[in-house]
Amino acid sequence: MRCKKMVDVGRRQFLRGSAFAAAGVAATTVTGTQASATPAPAQIDYPSTKLGNVADLAVNEPVDIEYPDADSPGVLIKLGQQVEGGVGPDGDIVAFSTLCPHKGYFMSYNADDRTLNCPGHFSRFDVEAGGQQVWGHATQNLPQFTLRVDEKGDIYAEGCSDLIFGRMSNTL
Amino acid sequence: MAYKRQIDRLPIPPKDAKVHNVTCHYCIVGCGYKAYTWPRNKQGTLKDNAFGVDLSEQQPAEGTWVAPSMYNIVKQNGEDVHLVVVPDKDCVVNSGLGSIRGARMAENRPSDVTGTQQQRLADPMVWRNGVWQPTSWDDALDLVARVTARVVTEGSEDDLVVSMFDHGGSAGGYENTWGTGKLYFQSMKVKNARIHNRPGYNSEVHSSRDMGVGELNYSYSDYEVTDTIFVVGANPLETQTNLFLNHMVPGMRNGAKFIMVDPRRTVTVNAAEEVAGKDNVLHLAINEGTDMVLFNALLTYIVDKGWHDKDFIEASTYRDGEAVPLDEAHPAGLGSLEYALESCRTSVEEAAEICGVPAEDIVKAAEWIAKPKDDGSRRKCVTAYEKGIIWGNDNYRTIGALVNVALATGNIGREGGGCCRLGGHQEGYYRPSDAHVGRPCEYVDQLLINGGGKVYHVWACDHYKTTLNAAQFKRAINRRSQMVKEAMDAAAGGTREQLVDAIVAAVNAGGLFIVNADIIHSQIGQAAHVILPACEANEMNLTSMNGERRLRLSERYMDPYGQSKPDCLIAAGIAQNMERVLREMGHDAYADQFKGYDWETEEDAFMDGYHQGNPEVTYDRLRAMGNNGVQEPVVGFDNGKLVGTPRLYADGKFDRHGREDKKALFCASKWRGWQAPGKAREKATHRFWVNNVRANIFWQNQFLDQENEFIQDRFPYPFIEMNPEDMAELGISKGDLVEITNENGATQGMAYPTETMKRNQVAMVFGSPAGSQGNIVNPGVNELVLPDYKHTWGNIRKLSDATPRAKGVTFKSKEYRA
Ligand code: SF4
Ligand code: FES
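Above: the input entities. Below: the structure tokens describing the complete assembly.
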């Protein structure tokens, strides 16, 4: 997990804008979404991206992820008790964007009370309550990634509940 | 369940989208926004768009982004158009920051397409056949004028009671305060008037003004260059959000220390500690209502140490003993520093005892405010205060005691100084003289409760949610309104004359005929007989000034909803109908008083009012000044630009009291314990102090937010922050519905466990539609009819287990913890 001291580092990296792309994870190829002869479908198609396996997750130890592409950091957490939107055998695995939907600062996870906290302007979100903003400036709750677990225990992200900061479309 | 918007993309504004200047119409800070509108069938592209940004790339922190709350489809000149309203990076007020209130302006517009704010009033309505029937303006205003004209000519203008906003921003602004002010204070001389948030027509800061100090005297930039930020009874991170984030935070980053006086630990204190470090933040968590004693001790200590600004005091303050004696209109005498100290001298030890904070913390505060630096130079200090003392114990003397400290340290009129209220709404007051109202003014709520008044005009105020002694107020108004409703029902099918006769007979028998101009059908509006639909900022052009007196024109970008109109034009309509009806009645001379309202637009009202007093200022010139506007007073027009005033009293001359000598006065703020009647007894006989607080998520009484799912999902009921041990003792779990009761009434809310709440104190959010805190506030006011909303005590019991909605809510600490 990103430790608390990493908050500022993460923020600087994100301000540079290219840190995640530079990580070299295979990103969905960016192709323009220009109007074409074929009519565009009514909603966007999300990639199905493997985030990990149920067996590899320990309770309250968040794992950094990137979804729907390498420029969109997020977090995958096993909470140890069933929660809203939770998947897996215990219904306790959730994933969220870690870009604050106020002004896009990169947030850190507080394992003590299981919140994501924003160093930008002090907003915080409850990962045990569907990403509800506990207090803050954002005008939406935290984008939560839709998860699916297959029979092997592999966890896939396949959608997102809200618009991710810094994009007009969740898939670029 | 956390509310999910299920939106994963938004339309892109094209390069040729229309761009409009917008000043956020919610809080006093007045952040700049840009509104983009464009035709429904057009859109920009990722590379070619109104923002000039490559939107195919992830934008960095603080980069361009349109949150779904910043988007809507609205009517513009009768066409459906896309609307995007985003914070303006180039506005010096907010530098591109939005807040949880302002960044939802777009989604809080009425839209028949997206279904937002369908609670907005579209038509005038008249109580007819047992319901409110939509009707035309002519029909509604004719009835208003006929009843009002009959009552004021058969009795007097004292039989007309008026509640009207005095602020800027939405529902207020220079256009609308002028329209209503001209009607009631020029065409008529209505004395029984009250303001939206207090039960009389008075200033909230009389003492500051009587001392010569207008309450908005600084520039927000003063926070960035000061040595100490001294905040009293305010919670700026929540209620003046971008003032805190964009000006106080940079001040702290530049080395300023931060003092907060508030019985409750708020998110503001926590954030200040994050920014400045705990060593540079001093939270004086005093006993409720004891602020004055603290200020008196600070003044005494500073003067005894010789840290006061002797040159400033000599040059700019009154030096000759008593200048204004204590009398009916002045709850404290005013005069020289020495004169004031005779009655307010207080030792640090006495203050520590009464305020319940350590003596060394009071000394530390005095040092941070006034102790000269090691090189002998003076410290700069900005003082800011708000409802904690404005709605607090002994308003006049307490605010006077605080202004004393700022004056004694020479911190008014200088860079890095200022002594200001932080404010709620923006300001936008331009009205004819209110001198006829008198001082003290009438306590209008009591007048109405006691059967006074016959016709009641209510402008954009919902006292049912926000006034003190609300339970009794509502019972009285409902009963008196019902008498008129029954009379109107009985006259169904008759002529207009018969209807007016029936109404007049009912009000003569103790009823009350209520006319309500508002944007929604409010709670007090349920008691109204005629309802007049008003529009909001940006459905009209509107001028206001913010907390540093920054005047802007917030431009119209959409049509008023339905038949709704700007308040100034509604007031003009009433005036025109009054003139016509009075003439018919044969009162020609009186009818003539209602001439002069031939306004077609809000700009006409602006030119008739504000422009007359400020001839340099026009819409065109303000438009050219954009979102940075100009700081009032405007002193000229030069090189195509309006010239303003960054800071008041820079010349050391104080004039708010109107004294020819232009000397500031000190306030003899002698402590007298609980000032308002009934407070001491209530405290002695109830367990919990019920602090009346605000939250960043709600704008005022939630009049729009009550129909906003994102907001209601977070707090479906008004929160009551409570110490977990108190909760356990009373068998209350998180989210349970609880009732607070005392002799004044009862109210209810949702228990929110809060570790930092002191035992036997709770903090309840103000003005909620689902639980009015005002129900339990006693009628006690000060000599000038300023209410003490902040001091209420009650007992608490559980009403019900958490409902399914409350169960879905997070109850974690609101404090940021990395
Ligand atoms: S801080 Fe105040 S003015 Fe600024 S966006 Fe928020 S509500 Fe509007
Ligand atoms: S960016 Fe997160 S609170 Fe502002």
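Note for the figure: Residues 109 and 197 of chain B are 24 Å apart (CA to CA).
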